[in-house]
Amino acid sequence: MVSAKYQWQEENLAPTPASQAIAEEFGLATIAAELLVKKGYTTIEEVRTFLEPSSTSFHDPYLLYDMQKTVDRIQEAIVSGEHITIYGDYDADGLTSTAIMYETLTQLGADVDYYIPDRFKDGYGPNKAAYERLIADGTELIVTVDNGVSGHEAITLANEKGVDVIVTDHHELPQTLPHAYAVIHPRHPKGKYPFGDLSGAGVAFKVATALLDEIPQDLLDLATIGTVADLVSLTGENRALVKFGLTALENTLRPGLLALYEVAGVDQQTITSETIGFLLGPRLNAIGRMQHAQRDVELLTTLDDELATDLAKEAQSLNIQRQNIVEEITQQALDKLEQEPKHLVNVVAGPDWHEGVLGIVASRLVEKTGRPTLVLNISDEGIAKGSGRSIEAFHLFNALDGHRELMTSFGGHHMACGLSLEASNLSQLQTILDEEAKAQDLDPTKKPVLQVTAKLKASEVTLDLIASLDKLAPFGTDNEVPVFEITDYQVVQAKALGKTNDHLRLDLNTGMTQLAALAFGVGDELPELLAQPKSLKFVAAVDKNEWRGNISPQLLIKDLDQVAKKKPQVIIERSERLQKEQFLSPAVYGFFNANLAKRFAAHLPAGSKCVVFDQNLPQLTVDEVVLVDLPQNLAQLEFVLGKLDCAKVRAILYTKAKSAPLPERTDFTKVYKYVFQVGHLNLKTDLDQAATQVGLEKSQLVLVLKVFFEAGFVTIKNGILVGVKNARPHRLEDTNSYRTHGQQIQVEELVLTSSDEALTDWLLQRLG
C-alpha cells in the first residue's frame, strides 16, 4: 500500500469582498483571487504591483550600503588600468554572477579576468592560496561575486599585500564582516536596502546597474538564471527581475544559452522558472560538480557559435555522467543503510564517492527515508568529506555547530551543511547527531507538511483556470506552484511511462471529459499503483499539455495516497427470467436498458431507487446496488463499476436471449454470392428460405445483411435488398453492426458462461 509522503494541509481559502473585487478587476478565477488575498495582497494596487511589475519595482542600487564607494573604486581601477579579477563560485548563481560582472566591466573598458575556485582544491569562497596566486599574477583589485562575507583570512592576506577586495554577496552574514574595501550585501547591518533576498546574481546585477547608470536589459537573462537556480524568494524585486528575465531568456541571442537550449531540449518560446530549475540550472551546475567550472562562464559569455555548441555539449555530457554517478552512489548508500541499525539521522560514508554530487545524493536519501542525511566520501588519507541535507523539523547547522572540535571544516545552515572530519570519528558523529535529534524532538515518523491550496473537482480543471493561475507565475520560493487535492473523478486507466517505466499516467473520467494525471519518478511504487489505481487519491498542480497544436489541461501529481477500501460483497444471481423475489429488498436497481427501467420503476419496493446506467451516471455511495440487466459491452460495465461505492452488489445481469454466434468469414462470402445469385431478397418474405439455403440461423443472416448494408455492399429500397456490383472495398470488422455484436458476445461469454468465482473476481477488480 502506497502512503502519502506529506501531511496535506489545506489553505482554507474563502471568498471575501477583497477577493471578489480582485477577481473582477483582473479577470481571475475565484481560486486565484482568493489565493492572492491569502498571500497578503488584499488591495487592487497591491495585486497590480504583484501581477504587473514595472521598472519601478527595481530599487535604486545606491540604497545598497557601500555602493557609491564600490563604483568609485572600480571606476578608478578602470581609469588607471589596474588589473581586476572577479572571484566567483562554481554553482549556477556564482557562474551567472561572474558573467554579469565580467561583461559589465568589459563593456566599461576594464582590464579584467575571472577566477572560479576549484570545488575540490579551493573549496567554497575566498581561498588564501588562490588569492596569493592571483595577486602574484598581477591582480590589483579583487571583486567577489556570490561569496566573500566569510572570507576573513583571504581578504586579510590581500590587504597585507596592498590589494583591495570588494565583496558582493548575499549569503548568511557572520557576526563580524571581513575588512574588505567595500561590502555590498542586501542585508548589510549598516544598510537600509528595502529587499533583503537578492541572489548573488541579483547583487551583481545591482552593481552592474550602478556602474552602467541604467538597468542592463541584456543581463536580465543571466540574472534570472542565477536568481531561480539559487532558490531565493520569488517575491518583491526578485519577482520583477525574473518576470522580465524570462522574457529576456525567450529572446536572448547569447550563443551559449541558445546552445544550452538545444542540448537540453528547451523550447525558447515557453521558458518558465521550472525550465531553469530542472533543465538549465542542473546543466550549468554539472561542470562545477564534475570538473572545473571556469568553462561555464566561457559558455555564458562567448560570442563564438561553434565554441558555444562545443561547451554546451560538454555540459550535457557531464550532466549525464553526474546523473549516472548520483544513481550509483544513491543505491550504494541505500544498501549500506539497510544493512545497519536505523538512526534518527542517517550518516553514510564510502570510498571513491564523487564529492561533487554528495549533496544531491543526500537530498535523494532524505526524500527516500524521510530522515536528515549526511553522505561522505572517505579518501585514501582517511578523511571523510561530504554534505548533509535536512528536513524542516531538524536544524542541521545547530546540531553540529557545538561540536566543531570533531571536524576539520564545517559550514552550513538549517537545511544543509558541508563538513570534513577524520573517518575514525564517524561513529562519534553518528552518536552526536542522534543525541541532537532527540534534543530537538525529531520524530522521523512525522510527515513534512505540504500546503494544499484547495480541494478541486477534476471537472473544474480547465484551460481558463490554468490561465488564471499562470498569471501568478513565476513560481518558486515563497510563491510556490498552487497544489490542489483533486476530487470527483474515476480512474479509467493506469499505465507506466518512460524509458525505464518509472512514471505513472492516470486517465481520469471527470464526468464531462477525460483528464490525464502524471506522476514522475514513482519507481518502486509503480506495481502497487498499477494494481489498485482506483484506490488512489492525490494532490497535483494544474498544467497544460501541448501536442501537435492541440492544448489540453493535465495534472502533475505531487503526492499520492492509496486508500484501503473494504471490498463489497458480490452476490451472483444470474437469470434468464426476472422474478418478483429478486426485487423485494430496498436497494438501488440499475438498468442498462432505459425501456426496461421504465417498466420496473413503479414496481420497486419502498426505499428503492431506479437508475439508468448512462454516461452521466454520478458516483453512487449506497448500501446495495443491483445490476439488473446486461450492458451492451464490457467498457460500459467497467464504467458503471468504477462509479459504485457500496457494501453489496447483486448481479442479476438478465438477458432475454443469448446472441447467436458471430458468422465465420466463409459465411459472409456464401451470403454475398447468394444475394447476387437470386438477384434480390424480400426482407419480409424471403429470409427464412435464404437462411436455410446458406446454412445460417435467421438472426445470423440478418446480422450479415446489416453488415453488408453498412459497408455499401447491398442497397435496400421498399424492403427489397439488392447487391451492389463493383462496391468499394470495406473492412467488415469496421462496421457498427459487426463490432456491436462482437462486443455483446464478449459480455455474454464473461457474464453468462464463466463460473461464479471468475465473475466475482472480475467484478471485484473493477469496483470503484
TrEMBL record:
Domain DDH: 83-227
Keywords, alphabetical: Coiled coil, Exonuclease, Hydrolase, Nuclease
Entry superkingdom: Bacteria
Protein name in UniProt: Single-stranded-DNA-specific exonuclease RecJ
Single-stranded-DNA-specific exonuclease RecJ C-terminal domain boundaries: 569-763
Similarity-based family: Belongs to the RecJ family.
Coiled coil: 308-340
Alphabetized Pfam families for the sequence: DHH, DHHA1, RecJ_OB, ssDNA-exonuc_C
Domain called RecJ OB: residue spans: 454-559
